[in-house]
Design brief:
This protein has 384 residues and is α/β, with parallel strands linked by helices. 45% of the residues lie in helices and 15% in strands. The chain folds into three domains: 145 residues, NAD(P)-binding Rossmann-like Domain (Rossmann fold, 3-Layer(aba) Sandwich); 133 residues, no CATH class; 68 residues, Rna Polymerase Sigma Factor, Chain: A. The protein contains 16 helices and eleven strands. The strands form two sheets. A seven-stranded parallel β-sheet has the order 4-3-2-1-5-6-7, with helices on both faces. α10 crosses α14, α14 runs antiparallel to α15 and α14 packs parallel to α16. The longest helix is centred in the last third of the chain and has 18 residues.
Length: 384
């Protein structure tokens, strides 16, 4: 039986790499649903090639074009944001790959879990915004949430066979991004194009900026807390610029397990889709004889203050991670449009976290409200 995959965010970096994995394993996977925000051309191309049951184009202005282009096929075409939840409620798929970027991925993922569908989770913002609600629902529905993020996939892989052995701590590795070793006097002048050049990974624009500011690692600390049910003290970050060790788990006897390999998102994507199986592939292999060295250093949270803000959000909990995420999404959006500077992003996030009222145990509705409130406040700070 082939696993029927629903790819939410199929036109993005994770989505297109997932389709490469599916194309290489036609006996194991088939495509059931594809969704895109604006990119109608790529969505059409993907639909013609993979013949899914349904596609969603969120941008309603593009509906007629997509419908026309797929008129000679059996592909069902939907448009608009609410269609994402409608198709997530379908019974005809076996696994959702949650690869939409940002807060927009939250609702369809919740719908999949409510629908009892396993989720391969790339969209870390979902757990940053409402991790307790999402994981609580997954436990209640007995739905597996399998990480795709490389660090969390590494931890997940290290934990196989260790269900009786508690975690002492996890060590998330960070590449340090393109500005590793730089100080604020340099960062103040950094422009969009420069920040978009990540040394080790090719990714969507939002996560690439998050990697340059180290917010990505902050989001990942919170993601890890919820995925692996950890206390904040159990989450440590170390900078490892070569991105060969993808993360580590330390057990209660002090033993540390690491998962390693060349930086290539196709591996964690494939692992999550095929779990619990490992399937052969021809991705390039890491060669210890050719590796010059693997190095480690502590993150510079005085320069990369986003990581300090995220650590604060991790410890305080409640709706603070949600507020931080909303401000960050908007700040990154503004930076990508040259509306604010690199260091301004941190100031916007910090001020928004101070301003929006703290709720210790929010409901889903309260998380959604906090997101809106934080976005409004951050927008006013940036005069957007
Ligand atoms: P991307 O920008 O390349 O792609 C995003 C996808 O989401 C696209 O298909 C786009 O059409 C869709 N989308 C964007 N906004 C939307 C909206 N408002 N409503 C509906 N759909 C929308 O992003 P990406 O790099 O593929 O990242 C996707 C997610 O995976 C992010 O949460 C990111 O943090 C996470 N992730 C990515 C990588 C990576 O290597 N790219 C690694 C780890 C985790
Ligand atoms: Mg990651």
């Amino acid at each position: 039986m082939k696993k029927r995959i629903a790819i939410f965010g199929s036109t993005g970096s994770i989505g297109t790499q997932a389709l490469d994995v599916i194309e290489s394993n036609p006996d194991k996977f088939e495509v059931e649903i594809l969704t895109a925000h604006h990119n109608d051309e790529l969505l059409i191309q993907q639909a013609l090639k993979f013949k899914p049951n349904a596609v969603v184009i969120v941008d309603e202005k593009k509906y007629a074009g997509v419908k026309n282009a797929l008129a000679s096929t059996d592909v069902k075409v939907f448009a608009g944001e609410s269609s994402l939840e409608d198709v997530a409620a379908f019974d005809t798929y076996d696994l959702m790959l949650a690869a939409i970027v940002g807060f927009a991925g939250l609702r369809p993922t919740i719908k999949a879990i409510e629908n009892g569908k396993p989720v391969a989770l790339a969209n870390k913002e979902t757990l940053v915004v409402a991790g307790d609600v999402v994981m609580g629902m997954a436990v209640e529905k007995r739905v597996p949430v399998i990480p795709v993020d490389s660090e969390h996939s590494a931890i997940f892989q290290c934990l196989v066979g260790e269900s009786r052995n508690p975690i002492e701590r996890i060590i998330l590795t960070a590449s340090g991004g393109p500005f590793l070793g730089r100080k604020p006097n340099y960062l103040v002048n950094v422009k969009r194009e420069h920040a978009l050049q990540h040394p080790n990974w090719s990714m969507g624009t939002k996560i690439t900026i998050d990697s340059a500011t180290l917010m990505n690692k902050g989001l990942e600390m919170i993601e890890a807390k919820w995925l692996f049910n950890l206390e904040p003290e159990q989450v440590q970050v170390v900078v490892h610029p070569q991105s060969i060790i993808h993360s580590m788990v330390q057990f209660q006897d002090g033993s540390i397990k690491a998962q390693m390999g060349l930086p290539d998102m196709k591996l964690p994507i494939q692992y999550a889709m095929a779990f619990p199986q490992r399937i052969p592939n021809s991705f390039p292999r890491f060669d210890f004889n050719k590796a010059s060295q693997l190095t480690f250093e502590a993150p510079d949270t005085k320069t990369f203050r986003n990581l300090a803000l995220a650590t604060d959000a991790l410890y305080k909990g409640g709706n603070l991670p949600c507020i931080m995420n909303a401000a960050n999404e908007l700040a990154v959006w503004a930076f990508l449009r040259n509306r604010i500077g690199f260091l301004d992003m941190t100031n916007v996030i910090e001020k928004t976290m101070e301003r929006v009222s703290f709720i210790e145990k929010p409901t889903l509705e309260e998380y959604l409200d906090s997101d809106g409130e934080a976005r409004n406040y951050a927008a006013s700070l940036m005069q957007l």
